[in-house]
Amino acid sequence: MIQAMRPSISALKAASTSLSASASNIANARNGGRLADAEVTPMTRARQTAGRQDRVPEDLYRPVRADNVAVAGGGVRAVVREHDPPHVAEHDPGDPKADEDGLVARPNVDLADEFVRMRQARDSYMANLKVVKTTDEMAGYLVDRRE
Question: Of 15, 23, 83, 130, which residue is most buried, by most CB within 10 angstroms?
Answer without folding.
Answer: 15
